[in-house]
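Bug report

Summary: structure tokens for Beta 3-glucosyltransferase differ between web form and batch submission.
Environment: batch mode, default settings.
Steps: 1) Submit the sequence below via batch. 2) Compare with the web form result.

Sequence submitted:
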Amino acid sequence: MNQASRRPVLLGGDTSSEAARSRLRSCQQRRNSGQWRSPGKRGRAPRREEQEWSRSCCCCCRLLLAMPRALAACLFLLPLCARALALNVAAEDVKDRTEQLSQTSERSGNSTKISKELKEIVFVIQSQRNSFHLKKADDLKQSIFKQAAVLGKEMPTVLLIHQMDKHEGAWTILPLMHDFSVTYSRNSSWFFFCEEDTRIHLVKLLKILEGYDKSKEYFLGKALHDDESTIIHHYAFAENPTIFKFPDFAAGWALSIPLVKKLAKRLKNEPLKSDFTIDLKYEIALYIWEKGSGPHLTPVPDFCTEDFDSPNAAHCATTFANFLPLCGDPVKKTDIFVAVKTCRKFHGDRIPIVKQTWEKEAALIEYYSDYAESSIPTVDLGVPNTDRGHCGKTFAILERFLKHSPAATPWLIIVDDDTLISISRLQKFLSCYNPTEPVIIGERYGYGLGSGGYSYITGGGGMVFSRAAIQRLFASKCRCYSNDAPDDMVIGMCFSGLGIPVTHSPLFHQARPMDYPKDYLSHQVPISFHKHWNVDPVKVYFTWLAPEQKDFQDGRKHIREDL
């Protein structure tokens, strides 16, 4: 299999003691003389982060010379140092290029024009209320402002979706079109939407938007399409699913003001009818297309999901931070309790798949069934099995976690017996979340959000709860209205009533890999998939989720043969 990965290289790749001493002397001399330079940046003073990184490198070399056994630790730490440096340098590089282009514009008398055009773009960051996501959204907002400051005094409008949620459906965007039209249509030309991890090069973005007539209805983005008809899109366009294009939110997408005004008028006359929000990017494109009477998505090759430092991203106005979130040390395996929902009829075919694939990754795991079978073993919760919904069983699992799991265990994940998951990636992912906050994470769906409904985490991809969230739930009176009620929806309704938002992550998947566009998955580090139907689940696990074989170096993805 052809795999592209960045392996950690220790200060030039030679780990011998003599080489380490040589690199140490060179590093010290350059640091002490103030001559540190990063590649491609000769002739300027060293930045603070470069000086700090060089000192760290020297310290690591000293550690190698003093304690050879620390080699493995250095090999682990150096990529993290390099990653942190790369992020800072990339941000500075954008600023450097912006300044250069701004100076060129000033000499040609175009700086006022650029500033004016920038003012005509309304940026909308698809943010969330969780503290980790708030920080990422604010970082992106500040990046936009810093670049704008170089270009002129007129600052663009930057909106955060989570601050606009008069009702819970703000994240679905279409309910906001009326406010967008009324508030911004007079002085704006474009709305540009992006995710928290999207990186934007303002000058390049301006140049791209200049190429489209702002007086016409335009829907711009990086085009995705289904390779085969899929359940998450209700098997639409079954004869040729590739013909319908929808945007990859990670690359950013844009609507011209005439289209925003048209959508606002249509929504006023014809309120949204769909009960469920499942795949927002697809559903927005479908609504805009309006059965052929509205505009198709116009593909923009310069809206990209390449990583910012990829050689393929030189032309890109947008890039994407396509790595697994990691905020310090991964959480311990013993900090995650795994609950598997099953029933007697699946003990013989589904449970062996779990044991053959990901069970060994979990330190704390129990199987909850309607029948106690010691060979697995399963726990009979005393709740009759139901053909659907399973709300009674799920609430019994939540209560058992509070009463019987170690009090020091901060996280619970509930999965189905046909869920495939990477526990090692989940450990890294959860390092970015505070378990003392009420946190519920997974793939977010919506119900009735056009008319005061609620969001929920769909169960098949896995529902992650902090202990604090479960405690808040049981302190309330919200419970299942029947044992066969849809557990994930009832839980979503309960937390909505408590004012606790669910947190979306696209790394959890309710369906199989084949149900998602290949290009969409290509910039992800998936945590879970769901369903064994018409696939080899063992192959899916070892292709997409297994540690080591398909895991990621420095948080970056391998390139898969099947993509």
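Above is the batch result. After comparison, the two runs are identical; trailing whitespace caused the diff. Confidence is low (pLDDT under 50) at residues 1-91, 101-109, 549-563. The radius of gyration is 25 Å.
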